[in-house]
Amino acid sequence: MPPNTSILLVDDVPENLQLLTAMLQSEGYQIRSARNSRRALESATLAPPDLILLDIMMPEVDGIQACALFKSDARLKDIPVIFVSALNDTIDKVKAFEAGGVDYITKPFKSLEVRARVRAHLEIRRQQRELAASYQRLQELEELRDSLTHMVVHDMRDPLMVMDGYLQMVEMYEAATLSVKGKYYMDQARSGLQRLVGMAADMLLVSKTEAGRLELQPGPVDLATLLREAAAVGRPQTDAVKIQVDECPATMTVMLDEELIRRVLQNLVENAVKFSPAIGVVHLALRSGTGNVRVSVQDSGPGVAPEFQERIFEKFGQVKSSNRRRGTGLGLAFCKLVVAAHGGSIGVESLPGQGSTFWFTLPA
Q: 156 and 68 share a domain?
């Protein structure tokens, strides 16, 4: 039992208060008492107890009404209330629990029963407090991690831009002297750098969205054109994995933030290419539905088990699929946040060994 554990007894019969006080003081608890609900509320407000034992039949404000008052106060609502009453009908017990009571002891009460129930509910209360404190510490650590991540990513942008600038200069002024292997290495370096820049942009946008600072800039955009561009940009240099647009109208104008949806499409296509076999095919489709449009990106990779299909859209969420870990850290989390900000939905249809179809819908 924690030191200075406080219990508030509320009963209009002095003999009951004396008996309960003697019974619980022998357990080492600090006991306070009140003869009516008004004084009990004043006492609890001044110094919230760890537990309240509350009689039901009291003048003016009865125990049921008093419990409702305790639960309506932000400082007192989490204090466990045990009713102690001579009323033994089921309806009375139901009313007590509906008012917020955690237990019900009928009079005449037995010493062993009262002590056992008080001890049990104080232990539950202690565990709840420890859990709340742990959750608070976890939130603080997560906020610290997010702040550090945001700071690091923000500081990464300048050196990444410097690297990109020098690579462009090499391509402009030294391309003629590069060997075939040298040009291949340059292409790979540019590709990797572009992925890093995209990841940094995703992380900053996720941070903004979670902080409620992401402002969409919607306008009429041809989503069909964006889909075809994503297919062209996402095609690997070696062209080993094929990207094919299976179904796409000539045009489909939708109100959306063009840059953000472009990043969503690029992320989904890059993810599909990454997890497709060397001779695989990635299938893209754009369809119109009832009040919305649906984009799908299908790969022929190892698939995602049903129990992991929500986790991969979480921040830094990855799941093991066959011998590889599926997920892009922030890529899919970014996609989910952007699609949700547009009023749409996102998901995956997949079975292990049968590939995956990532899809999202947007209001038409």
A: no
Asked if residue 339 and residue 227 are part of one domain, the reply reads yes
CATH number, domain with residue 277: 3.30.565.10
Domain that holds residue 68: 6-109
Q: Dihedral of the CA atoms 29, 33, 37, 39 (nearest 10)? A: -120
| Selection from 158, 186, 142, 166 nearest residue 315 by Cα | 142
The b/e string for 79-96 (b: 16+ C-beta within 10 A; e otherwise) is: bbbbbbbebeeeebbebb
**Domain boundary residue, one of 52, 83, 109:** 109
Query: How many domains, in total, are found in the chain?
Result: 3
pLDDT band at residue 235 under the 50/70/90 scheme: low
pLDDT digits (tens, 9 = 90+) for 317-361: 555 554 454 444 567 888 898 899 899 999 999 888 888 999 999
Place of tokens 């992380």: 203
- Which range (111-115, 163-167, 220-224, 231-235) has the least confidence? 231-235
State the Cα–Cα distance between residues 69 and 101, nearest whole angstrom.
Answer: 12
Q: What is the pLDDT of residues 169-203, one digit of tens each?
A: 888 888 788 888 888 888 888 888 877 877 777 77
Q: How far from 265 is each of 141, 226, 262, 331, CA to CA, in Å?
A: 32, 8, 5, 11
- Is 230 a domain residue? yes
Residue 101 and residue 38 share a domain: yes
Q: Read off the tokens for 173.
A: 């002024």
> At which of 185, 210, 235 does a domain end?
210
- Residue-wise pLDDT for 101-122, tens only, equals 999 998 888 889 999 999 999 9
Is 134 within a domain? no
pTM beyond 0.85, yes or no: no
